[in-house]
C-alpha cells in the first residue's frame, strides 16, 4: 500500500462536504505530474486530505476505492480521476507550519513542490503527520 496527499480549497470542496458525500471522484487535475500520481494510486491506498489556501492543514485521511479512469468532466483522454471515500478525520488538523518545522518532513513534496495537487508520501511522512495530529 502506498500513501498520498491531495489538496483541495475548502470553499470548493471541503473535508466536511466529503464526509457528507461519503465518496467522490477526484477531478480537476490538470498537471501532468499530479495526473501521473493519480494513475499510480491503487485501491486501498490511503490519502491525506489537505485544505489549501484557506487553513493550510491536513484534516483527514481518505481511501482509494476505485483506480484511475477517464475524467468525466472532460473529453480529453489525458486526464483521469480516482474515486475516494473518507476513512478517518484526524484528531486535530496538522498545519503547513507544523509540517515545515518538523525535521522528519523536510523533504515532503508539500514543502518542496507547494503547487503540486496530488503527491506521494512515504510511510515515515504519513505516520509522522498522524503522530503530530495526536499530540
Structure characterization notes:
This protein has 135 residues and is of the alpha+beta class. It is built from 5 helices and 6 strands, in the order βαβαβββααβα. It is globular and about 45 Å long. The two termini are 25 Å apart.
Q: Strand content of the residues, in percent?
A: 35-45%
Fraction in helix? 25-40%
Molecular shape: globular
Order of helices and strands: EHEHEEEHHEH
- CATH architectural category: Roll
Q: What is the CATH C-level name?
A: Alpha Beta
User: What structural category characterises the helix and strand content?
Assistant: alpha+beta
Number of helices: 5
Average of pLDDT: 97
Question: Main sheet, how many strands, which sense, barrel?
Answer: 6 strands, mixed
Give descriptors for this structure.
single chain; 135 residues; alpha+beta; ph1033 like fold; 5 helices; 6-stranded mixed sheet
Write the layout of secondary structure elements.
Layout: E1 3-8, H1 15-21, E2 24-25, H2 32-40, E3 46-51, E4 57-70, E5 80-95, H3 96-101, H4 109-112, E6 118-121, H5 123-133
Parallel strand pairs: 1-3
Antiparallel strand pairs: 1-6, 2-5, 3-4, 4-5
Amino acid at each position: 500500500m502506498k500513501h498520498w496527499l491531495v489538496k483541495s480549497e475548502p470553499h470548493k470542496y471541503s473535508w466536511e462536504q466529503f464526509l457528507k458525500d461519503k465518496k467522490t471522484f477526484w477531478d480537476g487535475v490538470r498537471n501532468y505530474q499530479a495526473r501521473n500520481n493519480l494513475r499510480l494510486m491503487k485501491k486501498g491506498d490511503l490519502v491525506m486530505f489537505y485544505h489549501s489556501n484557506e487553513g493550510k492543514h491536513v484534516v483527514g485521511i481518505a481511501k482509494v476505492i476505485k483506480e484511475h479512469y477517464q475524467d468525466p468532466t472532460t473529453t480529453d483522454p489525458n486526464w483521469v480521476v480516482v474515486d475516494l471515500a473518507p476513512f478517518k478525520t484526524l484528531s486535530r488538523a496538522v498545519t503547513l507550519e507544523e509540517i515545515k518545522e518538523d525535521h522528519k518532513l523536510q523533504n515532503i513534496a508539500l514543502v518542496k513542490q507547494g503547487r503540486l495537487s496530488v503527491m506521494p508520501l512515504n510511510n515515515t511522512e504519513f505516520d509522522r503527520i498522524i503522530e503530530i495530529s495526536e499530540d
